[in-house]
Structures are given as structure tokens and as C-alpha cells.
């Protein structure tokens, strides 16, 4: 038989996941070890099966959008670890039309496939109580975007010329976009204390970012990775930080049977960009009595760009750009001051080293994805302590940055990324005891 579409038929949108904690849970969440939000629901599917399906100019068919992932926020009591995990976006609904004959009028008639839902944002906040030896850490894990809905059309001839045009103003088929990833935010609320024992700052190494959502129009970016190490307390070394961005989402093929027809694209389908990576080493501590701590090292590695499939029918795919990487070493601690009585001022500590590697570009049938950028900066050397003679400043941290190559493509290889490495500045020399300053003699 025949199905005639003269109005709008739309599958349900996926439900957004609730945020966490709720108002009722906010107080109790201060005592929990982790706050986790839920995943967005999948969009509804729309499936039609008939001998003939006809969509008039006033008709439209839409599968459902994926729901958003829940937002997560965690701020526990003082000196407790904070861990916030946001929810992933839901998958877009599938649009499937199985018919011997599919006839769709020109616009405003439209077939729309549900996009993936956005990943939730995550915020973790730690409050450091400087009277305790506990070193709290913060982890914020944002949600990844949901996969785009799939389209399955067993027959088509929308313009009676054998071509299905996508992405132009009069496009009939819409959708295919993966959801955007969420954002991770970390807050440190605390400061060093001169009364602390010599304790190394805790390393903060989050899990590698996860892969972005897939889509046939545009894929989602890989999950970003943030790593901020805690400072060294007392005169301890700053913590080391490592961040690795997630791989960009891949492009998927449209579920279209060819028959004797051709298929042309009015756009370039884009694979997902690799997740960015940002790592900061912790600052070295200085309690004025012990040898100061060195700055923590930082390593950032951008995620690989997503790939495009081998289309087999001349579709235009472009690989995803490699993720950007930024690393910064922690600053060295200040040297010991010895002016009562006067003695040699202590040397400042060395700044932390930094290393950044941009993600490689993705592989695709047309253009390979551009390589990711790498930017690094060594930590500042600690200032020398005051004395007679004053202490020398610590040396700045080393720095290396590697730009990644572009991905291979059937037509063009992706462009090389950029790189920039800055060595950390040396710390300033301390001041001589007894030398007049703007406030009088030291």
C-alpha cells in the first residue's frame, strides 16, 4: 500500500538527564566521594514500511534529538577529594523508510534525522585546609556528545534526476550531527602554609579523554583532558601533571541503497576534532626553613582527529583536526632567607619541565585532517633567598613542543600543526641583607 505524508510526523526528543546534585542532595554531597550525573536519553526512532511512501510539500518526517547529559558539580568539605562526572549525551533517533518507491516533494518538505545530545559539564572544587597533611585532588570528567541518528532510505529520487543533494539551502535531508562534548572545570581554593611538613604535591593524572560521538554530517570532538597538579606543601616538590585528549569521533556512512542512482553531496562531511589537552605542573613549596621544592613537570598530548570511512561512491569526507596540547611546568620554590643573623641566602628551586604533543590528524577519503598544535612553557625558577651573599635564582624549566603531522587523505595530506616551546625564566637573585630599600634597611 501507500503512505501519504501531508503533515508533520516527529518522534519524541530524548529526555535531558537531571543535574547532580539536586538541591535536596547538595548538603549531603559534601560528604560523598563522587558526584555522577546521568546520561541523556536516546531520541525516538521513526520507521515507515510500505510499497510506496509519498511526502508532499507540506509534509515532514523527523526522528528525535538525543537528550543532554546531566551537569555534575562537586565541592566537598575541606581536604576531601572532589570528583565530578557528567553524563554523556543521548543518541539521535533513527529515521528509516523502507519502500519500493519513495517520493519527496521539493522544500519545504523535509526529512530530518535526530542529532546527538550534548555532553554534560563537570565542575570539581577542592578546599585545602593548610593545617592538615592531607592533599586533596580534583577530577572533573565532562560527558561526551551522543552519536547522531542514522538514516536508512531504501529508495529515493527526490528531484527525479537521480541525485540526493545534502547541505544546500534547498536540502531535503537534514541531521547527522554528533552532540558537542561537555566542559570540565577544576577549582583549587587554598594556599601554601609555612608551617607544613615537607610533602610532595599530589600528582593529578585523569583518565585519557574518551572518543567523540559519530555522525554522517559532522562527528563530535574528542573529550578534552585537564590536569592541574597540586602545589608542594611546606617545601615539597610540586606535583606532576599529565593530560591526554580523547580521539575525535568518526564519520559513518549514510544507510542509502544505491540501485541505479548516484549520490552527490553539497557539503564536506567533517570528522571530529581530537580532544584538547591542558596540563599544569604544581608549584614547588617554600617554608623558609628547608630546601625549597622544584616545580612539577607537565605533559600534554592532544587527541587524534577522527577518521572518515571509505565511502565507495565518491562522497566527500575530511579527517578531523588533531587536538591542541598545552603544557606548563610549575614554578620553583623561593630559597631560604638568612638575615638574622646574616648568612648565605638559599638558592631558588628549579622550575618544572613542560612537554606538549599535538594530536595527529585523522584519515579520510578526500582530505586528511590537519595536525594538532603543541605549546609548552617551562616553569619559572624560584627566586633566591635574601642573605649575605644573597641566594641565586633557580633555573627555569625546560620545554619541548611537538606539532603533529596531518592525516593521510585520498587527495590531500592534512597540514602540519604549529609548535612553540618556551624555556622557563630563571628566578631572580635574592637581596643582600642590610641594603636599604624603599622601606628602610633589611
Termini Cα gap: 98 Å
Number of strands: 26
Average pLDDT number: 82
Q: What is the gyration radius calculated from CA atoms?
A: 28 Å
Low-confidence stretches: 157-169, 190-200, 257-266, 437-442
**What is the overall number of helices?**
0
Principal-axis shape equals: elongated
Largest sheet: 5 strands, parallel
Strand content: 15-25%
Derived structural class: mainly beta
User: Strand order of the main beta sheet, please?
Assistant: 1-4-8-12-17
The level of helicity is under 10%
Q: Encode the helix/strand succession as letters.
A: EEEEEEEEEEEEEEEEEEEEEEEEEE
Task: Give the topology, please.
Layout: E1 2-5, E2 8-10, E3 35-36, E4 46-55, E5 60-62, E6 72-74, E7 82-85, E8 95-104, E9 110-112, E10 122-127, E11 138-141, E12 151-153, E13 173-174, E14 184-189, E15 225-228, E16 241-244, E17 255-256, E18 269-270, E19 277-280, E20 298-301, E21 317-318, E22 325-328, E23 354-357, E24 374-377, E25 399-402, E26 419-422
